[in-house]
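pasting for ref. prot 1 ->
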Amino acid sequence: MEKIDYKEFEKRLLEMKEELESNIARLKDEIDAIGSEDEIDDLEDLASLESDNMHHTAILKQQQHELDEVIHALSKIKTGNYGICEKSGDEIPLERLRAMPHARYCIKHAQSDQE
């Protein structure tokens, strides 16, 4: 198996972290802006705003989860456990890490975790 270049993955994860933090801040600003609409008389406008708020909140939740996973992966680099499946203890294939640098599991265990 090809050796993991920890510096390469740490750099990618730090870039992902920065982008996610930026996205989260922007989404929070947008949610705050949506919530500050006080003078809405039209029920259709109100429904549209509520729909936008729900959509932004769902995206925010997903982005926060991904940020948590990236932070977890960065901590695994520091402890020397990066690239190791958390279920089996086997190495996660490099191709999977390149596709998803914050992967916790090898493909086999990632699929069984979703069932």
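and prot 2 ->
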Amino acid sequence: MAKSDITGKRRMKAQNVSHSNIKTKRWQNVNIQQRRLWVPELGKFVSLNLTTRDIRTIDKIGLYEYAKRHHVKL
């Protein structure tokens, strides 16, 4: 299943809405990417499944800080 290793985000339920306003259930998937990231604090690479939002935030504040904010041990 597509799930972020740090935030735990998964697919969500959503609805298709037709022109006549008929609603049908569907799944809204998260954009999960497999990434191998360097963690300078640990001195090693870590492979993670991350959402694109996670990747953008990690670019700004760093992987170690981002994992600490979400109470995840690398």
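The mean pLDDT is 95.
Residues 32 and 51 are 5 Å apart (CA to CA).
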